[in-house]
Fold this sequence. Notes:
The complex is a heterodimer. The two termini of chain A are 29 Å apart. Helix content of chain A is 68%, strand content 0%. Chain A has helices spanning 3-14, 23-30, 33-57, 73-85, 89-97, 99-122, 125-148, 159-188. Chain A is globular and about 50 Å long. By secondary structure, chain B is an alpha+beta fold. Chain B has 2 domains: 1-37; 50-217, Glutaredoxin. Chain B is built from 6 helices and 10 strands, in the order H-H-E-E-E-E-H-E-H-E-H-E-E-E-E-H. Chain B has helices spanning 2-37, 46-55, 97-116, 136-145, 161-171, 207-217, and strands at 59-60, 65-68, 71-74, 84-90, 122-128, 153-158, 175-177, 183-185, 189-193, 197-202. In chain B, strand 7 (175-177) and strand 8 form a beta hairpin. The model of chain B has no long low-confidence stretch (mean pLDDT 89). Chain A binds chain B through residues 66-71, 73-74, 77-78, 81, 84-85, 88-91, 93-94, 97, 152-158, and chain B through 12, 14-16, 18-23, 26-27, 30, 33-34, 37-38, 43-49, 169, 172, 174, 176, 178-179, 184-186.
Amino acid sequence: MNSGSRRLPTGLLAALPLLLLWAPLRQLLEGSMALHMLVELPLLVASGWAAGAVLAHHRLPAGLPRLIDANGVLGLAFASCVGALWMIPSMLDLSLLDAGVQWAKYGAWWFSGVVLRASWRRSEPEIAAFFAGNMAWMLATAGLLYQDEGQRLCVSYLVDEQVVAGKGLIVLALLLAGLALHRVVVALRPAAIQPRDRLAPGADGRASGMTRR
Amino acid sequence: MPGARSSAAAARPRALVATLLAALGLLVGFVALVGQLTRGFEYWTFEALRRDDAAKARLLARGVELSGAYGPAPTPWPGQAGEVFLVDFIYTRCPTVCSALGAEYTRMQRALRERFGADSPIRLVSIAFDRAHDTPAALREYGFTHRQEAELWQIGTPVDAAAQEALLRSLGVVAVPDGMGGFVHNGAIHLIDASGTVRGIYDVERWPQALERALALAGAGRS
């Protein structure tokens, strides 16, 4: 697939949150706790990530300034904070009952995707693995709590949905832990071919393995 | 270019310090935000926050027109000073919580009748929210089952969907379809004063405490 044909789906993914202006879709995605936490929120991050790619393609600012995001630390910390905030049950309810919180949620998750793309690429594997591992641990803890709690944690969802969402959070945590491990393992491979964007501009094939720090 | 390389090397610690300071600021902001949202890391669920609001008299119930078995009538709030209302939310087809609430309301009604006769400063209000099924006939049947006495216990459904939404929203009451034709809702007894301010929220099994507090608010504590 060439870059031109890749640009269209990326652009569409970046603009995906606009569909949330359509109330029936919002109600569908947010009508179930599992869809809300495991589909809508990750899709917002993916959409923000795609928006970051579109911005970068047009040479527009597509991440936090390098000066305050050395090694991607601030961006990764920001995304972690957004993730942690929406593990609080009252925030899920408030995002359904208060329009201000609802749009703040869309904005925060989407923006964290934009920031995450740049910061993930800037980060050293150890730093990226540290943040991804912490996020995985937090998701797994929330997932276990959601399953163990016999009472409804959200007034907007049933206990059964809470259990399903809890299981889904654990799967998500395992995926994230796998991603963290993958990032470290790839970096440890001596002859690993690094992603093209880590190379200095204009670097050719002979520079394989070189990284820009 | 050695010059460019050395300036890049000099910028690196500066960026690291700036990043760490920014990350620290973010962390402090995040902890402050969570502290604010959970009121000092105390309340993590919407229901806990709602009950805290009620305990601190920060929840105001909208007054709406209710349609009942005996015709339309407004909610008794805003009312006259000294009046207190014990309000619950039901749907008449509910086989579980609402039946339990109905049974406890019958007991409270009996206690009020014995204490005050028909002229009680404390009145019971049941608001039905299943608009499709809580017809005047269904409300009459519910009242009949639980021996409702109209002068002590008002049962009705808000006259239109917008009024119902406004009332439920103002109190943070949420009814979720249970997938079997019924609802799951944060059903509890709301103690509301004459101004419409919620003064407490009590689970159904704590109805004696709700009644006791209502008596105290009405200035008619235990005699």
